[in-house]
Amino acid sequence: MSIFKSISVTVLAWFLSSYDVTSCRCRYLSFTEEVNYADQIFTGTVLKKNPSDLIQYTFVVSQTFKGNKTDSITLNTGFGGGDCGMKFVVGKTYLVYSREGHTSICRRNALLEETTDIDQLKKLFPRRR
What is the torsional sign of CA 103, 107, 108, 110? Predict the structure, then answer.
């Protein structure tokens, strides 16, 4: 094999090995689609983060819009990056959409002060406060 082919194969192998083939791909949902998809919608403050096979975040729930009313809830998410894991900050308060105990960056999760969904949720679920 010529030196040129050898270098070309090495560069190609390096490029392919460094290419991230496991990227997160989301289908972002409209507000209505998200509300229908989620089985739990709440506002809550992140109490703690527990890494395991997935990342687990425990929230102190301040308001439940949809799902079981509870004082706290623990949700699973990925580590971030290619697995679409959501990174919450301990001590911050969020609006969270989850399904079957799992959430991700593909959901409409947001810091409470940055979301525009709260007013719509209050109209949609007026008795869930």
Answer: positive
Kindly report the pTM of this predicted structure.
0.80
Give the residues of the chain that fall short of pLDDT 50: 9, 11-20
**Neighbouring C-beta atoms of residue 36, cutoff 10 Å:** 11
Backbone Cα Rg of the chain: 20
Give the H or E element holding residue 127: none
Cα 106 to Cα 14, 26, 38, 75, 119: the distances in Å are 31, 5, 12, 15, 21
> How does DSSP classify residue 116?
S
Query: What is the CA angle 49-51-55, rounded to 5?
Result: 75
Residues 6+ positions from 61 with CB-CB distance below 8 Å: 42, 43, 44, 69, 70, 71, 72, 73
Could you tell me the end-to-end alpha-carbon distance of the chain, in angstroms, rounded to an integer? 72
